[in-house]
Amino acid sequence: MIFEIIKSEGISHNSYFLGSGSEAAVVDPRRDVEVYLELAEMHGVSIRYIFETHRNEDYTIGSAELARHVDAEILHGSALDFRYGTPVKEGDTFSLGSLELEVLETPGHTYESISIAVRDTSISDECLMVFVGDVLFAGETGRVDFFGPEKIPETAGLLYDSIHEKILPLGDHVVVCPAHGAGSVCGAEIRDMDTTTAGYERLTNPYLQMGRDEFIEYKKSERLYTPPYFRRMEENNLRGVKVNKSHLEALPLQDFRELMGEGAQVVDVRNPTSFCGGHIPGSLNIWQDGFAAFAGYFLNYEDPILLVDDGRGVDSVRRSLIRLGYDNMAGYLAGGFPPWYMAGLEIQKLDAISVHELREMEGDFFLLDVRKITDRDRFHIEGSEHVWVGDLPDNIDLIPEKDVVIYCDSGYKSTIAASILESHGFRVSTVLGGIGAWLRAGYPVVGDF
Questions:
Q1: What is the average pLDDT value for the chain, to the nearest integer?
Q2: What is the DSSP string of 162-196?
Q3: Same domain for 259 and 187?
Q4: Which of the listed residues 295, 316, 342 is the one where a domain comes to its end?
Q5: Which of 188, 217, 239 lies at the terminal end of a domain, its last residue?
Q6: Number of compact structural domains in the chain
Q7: Residue 122, Cα to own-chain centre: how many angstroms?
Q8: Looking at residue 65, which CATH number applies to its domain?
Q9: Pair 275, 161 in one domain
Q10: Residue 265 CB contacts under 8 Å (≥ 6 apart), including other chains
Q11: Are residues 335 and 360 in the same domain?
Q12: Which one is predicted more confidently, 350 or 184?
């Protein structure tokens, strides 16, 4: 048996490559599909099936793009009218060599969610593993809020039943393969584990210890963020989209400036300290390793996207743009930021302060906490106000016209927020090291950390 986990960092997405004999299946492929083609070639197998566990919200699925390269059938749940592929229902089975793949209808996270139970019939009729999509995670369960708060009692009940009537009865030994790992916005506290087992979750997952009514009540009170780009992903994944642009051009300064003049979105993907030292006026800072997690909060799908880097290359950003459905990526400034200032063009600097400077600050200033609300509820710096960084563009009017000092966990998200407020004319400072450095310096907080 061939079994490979393909991780997409940033969005913490897991897809899977499963094979036996001369055939293989891919579960929940990402849009940059080269990895699946390479695996098929490496193992000498043909991709026969492409399974989608549900209409994904946090990335554009790569089924249509993968099907351009291989002769495979796209399969997904029948409770949603997809514009492509083939609907499947409870009990449908598919063969890959000695493997039998059985469809389980497991609604809750979405109505059309399915899981795929796998048996190796050359060994046993017992289930070996199950691909669960966003139904169950290591230490967590899928979110159920996408259809509005009025639907949560229904969707939470469906999710509870799917877990307890479909997944757990497969047996404690069964390997559970979720679509996301730690850090995904599709669950609040997913453990940092690639896979888990039904038995381990039954014993250790706190949400599986709840009765049905308690579980529903908990889900009604759950607080999760929904990035605005999710709606675009749902649209893409309903109709199926191929990759329209797979490369990023290195643009000379003149071409870069011309696109800026036409209203392009400029994103500086350097780290906060580099951005603070000097940057193109009006640019948004999202550090490269955080790009996949945060770009969807701030970038639109119409205006061209231009990147500024530190010369290390932007391939990881390019891949993130493809996965998030941004076919409007236009290119990056050849040579990074230096060609801009070497040409004598205007630059801006952002004030970066230490936690010691923050501790000693006096006068009238606005201290802004841009962490997740669940983190703030645990502890925060006294006197601070809160707006989650992803909500900031829609809440600019909440920020007073005075000096603004911003902190987050470590200084990365606060610099995103600072670049946004700076572009709106605010006088801003970002706190390097964030509340983590504040605590390590021994300074007090409100709450229990």
A1: 95
A2: HIIIIIGGG-TTPEEEESB-TT-TTSSS--S-S-E
A3: no
A4: 342
A5: 239
A6: 3
A7: 38
A8: 3.60.15.10
A9: no
A10: 284, 299, 300, 303, 304, 305, 306
A11: no
A12: 350
- d(CA 342, CA 85) in angstroms, rounded, equals 52
> What number is the average pLDDT over the span 79-96?
97
Q: How far apart are CA 191 and CA 325, in angstroms?
A: 27
**pLDDT category of residue 232 using cuts at 50, 70 and 90:** very high
Q: What pLDDT is recorded for position 29?
A: 97
Q: Is residue 244 part of a domain?
A: no
| Residue 125 falls inside a structural domain | yes
Reading the block at residue 381, the tokens are: 């710096």
Q: pLDDT-based confidence at 311, cuts 50/70/90?
A: confident
Same domain, 388 and 438: yes
Residue-by-residue DSSP string for 310-378: -SS--HHHHHHHHHTT-TTEEEEETT-SHHHHHTT---B--EEE-HHHHHH--SSEEEEE-S-HHHHHH
Which residues span the domain enclosing 380?
Answer: 351-447
Residue 188: its pLDDT value, please? 64
CA 108, CA 162: separation in Å to the nearest integer? Answer: 7
Question: What letter would DSSP give residue 264?
Answer: P
Closest Cα partner for 365 from 445, 432, 276, 427?
427
CATH number at 307 reads 3.40.250.10
**Residue 435 sits in the same domain as residue 335:** no
**331 and 421 share one domain:** no
Question: What are φ and ψ of residue 84, in 5° steps?
Answer: -155, 170
Amino acid identity, residue 267?
V
User: What is the per-residue pLDDT across 270-308, written as a single tens digit (0 to 9) for each?
Assistant: 999 999 999 999 999 999 999 999 999 999 999 999 999
Residue 245 is assigned to a structural domain of this protein? no
280, 264 contact by CB (below 8 A): no
Say how many Å lie between the first and final Cα of the chain, rounded. 46
162-173 average pLDDT score: 98
Same domain membership, residue 101 and residue 7: yes
Instruction: Say whether both 367 and 334 belong to one domain.
Output: no
Alpha helices in 30-77 (DSSP H): 34-43, 63-67
pTM over 0.85: yes
Give dist(CA 357, CA 314) in Å, integer: 34
Q: Could you give the CA distance from residue 376 to residue 172 in angstroms, rounded to a whole number?
A: 37
Q: How confident is the model at residue 12 (pLDDT cuts 50, 70, 90)?
A: confident
Quick one: pLDDT band at residue 134, thresholds 50, 70, 90?
very high
In this structure, is residue 25 part of a structural domain?
A: yes
**Residue 185 pLDDT more than 80?**
no
34-38, 135-139, 171-175, 445-449: segment of lowest average pLDDT: 445-449
